[in-house]
Amino acid sequence: MRQAGRYMSEYRALRERYSLLELCRTPDLATEVTLQPVRRIEVDAAILFSDLLLPLEPMGIRFDFIRGEGPAIDNPIESEDDINRLRRFEPREALAPVLEAVRQVKRELAGRVPLIGFAGAPFTLASYAIEGGHSNNFARTKALMYGHSDAWHRLCDLMADIVSDYLNAQIESGVDAVQVFDSWVGALNAHDYREFILPHTRRIFDVVGGRNVPTIHFGVGTGAILAEMREAGGDVLGADWRIPLDEAWDRIGHDRAVQGNLDPTLLLGPLTRVLAGADDVLSRAAGRAGHIFNLGHGILPSTQVEHVQALARHVHHATRRRQD
Questions:
Q1: What separation in angstroms does the CA of 6 have from each of 33, 40, 74, 78?
Q2: Contact present, 311 and 278 (Cβ < 8 Å)
Q3: Is the pLDDT score of 69 beyond 80?
Q4: Are 55 and 126 in contact (CB under 8 A)?
Q5: In the chain, what percentage of residues exceed pLDDT 70?
Q6: How much is the pLDDT for 210?
Q7: Same domain, 227 and 312
Q8: Which of 2, 92, 202, 256 is catalytic?
Q9: 128 is annotated as an active-site residue
Q10: Which of 41, 45, 54, 81 has the greatest count of CB atoms below 10 A from its CB?
Q11: CB 77 within 8 A of CB 152
């Protein structure tokens, strides 16, 4: 879950010289940042360093990252006319630097671990584009969704098409699995998810699922809609720390794999508590096939890298011992 970042000194050194968007848009830099955690931590896969907002700019939605505040949209969607002005684009051209980074990372990894690519899901992309950045209540997004449902579905149709094509381009470039991030979809209840989101997200998984690579479906705060997310698609469903892993797996169904679900803030505490939390997650997985141990969301910037290293070693040791 967002392996690279400010918790690593080598990443901070690069960020002193380059903006986040420069790192994402320069294949050599994106390759270096992707490989940094692979060198330091016993991860079982590399996660491509990129940002889920990158497809917005070729659509006509300009943005940048404000230090300490996150993404800021220059021209947020405010009307149906704004939606009508959005552009379709060819990701193999407009997002070529990302795809080149995929190819470079694959060469550098040389089969050591697989590479996971990703893209944002329609609700999360739309919410950033409408709110102008992150939101606590998604009021503008829901106002458009409820009040102008036809326009909402046109917007999500467009985003689903673009995300599907973008993920297929990543697969063509060499990623071994793809993850669809619907980071903020937990803001919806099950009824609204089914009406406004499920058809669009399902279309992504229907398209990408035919490419014979594993697909991962992730959101935050989604305990109440896990069954609906399962219906939308994904070989693997993510669960965050707000729901016990075994309960989440029961809601998802044991014919699907699960990813999760240690609270990332535990890594800020004493190591004994970190490892106890990991043991609780593993005990709830009960050794069943199909559990990917992971955090419930990204590593926080103030995390000690030594805690991340110790956690990975501990999980590997514990799971190997169970297998033996």
A1: 11, 14, 25, 33
A2: yes
A3: no
A4: no
A5: 98
A6: 82
A7: no
A8: 2
A9: yes
A10: 54
A11: no
Per residue in 212-253, pLDDT (tens digit) is 899 999 999 999 999 999 999 999 999 999 999 999 999 999
Which is higher by pLDDT, 67 or 281? 281
Q: Are residues 179 and 318 in the same domain?
A: no
- 3-class SS at 217? strand
15 included as an active-site residue: yes
Selected catalytic residue, list 6, 107, 273, 322: 6
Q: Which domain holds residue 303?
A: 264-324
Residue 193 annotated to the active site: no
Q: Give the residue from 197, 246, 207 showing the smallest Cα distance to 223.
A: 246
Same domain (yes/no): 233, 301: no
Structural tokens at position 305: 């890298």
Q: Which helix (H) or strand (E) holds 203?
A: helix 198-208
**pLDDT, tens digit, for every residue of 15-62?**
999 999 999 999 999 999 999 999 999 999 999 999 999 999 999 999
Based on the fold, state whether residues 316 and 228 are members of the same structural domain.
no
Contacts of 67 (CB under 8 A, 6+ apart): none
What is the domain count for the chain? Answer: 2
Same-domain pairing of 198 and 300: no
Structural domain contains residue 131: yes
How crowded is residue 257: how many other Cβ atoms within 10 Å of its Cβ?
A: 18
Degrees, nearest 5: CA angle 207-210-214 = 105
Token readout for 132 is 């102008």
Q: Find the catalytic residue in 7, 11, 25, 128.
A: 128
Q: Is the peptide bond before 261 cis (omega within 30 degrees of 0)?
A: yes
Same domain for 284 and 209, yes or no, is no
123 lies in some domain: yes
Q: What is the pLDDT of residue 68?
A: 62
The active-site residue, picked from 7, 11, 25, 51, is: 51
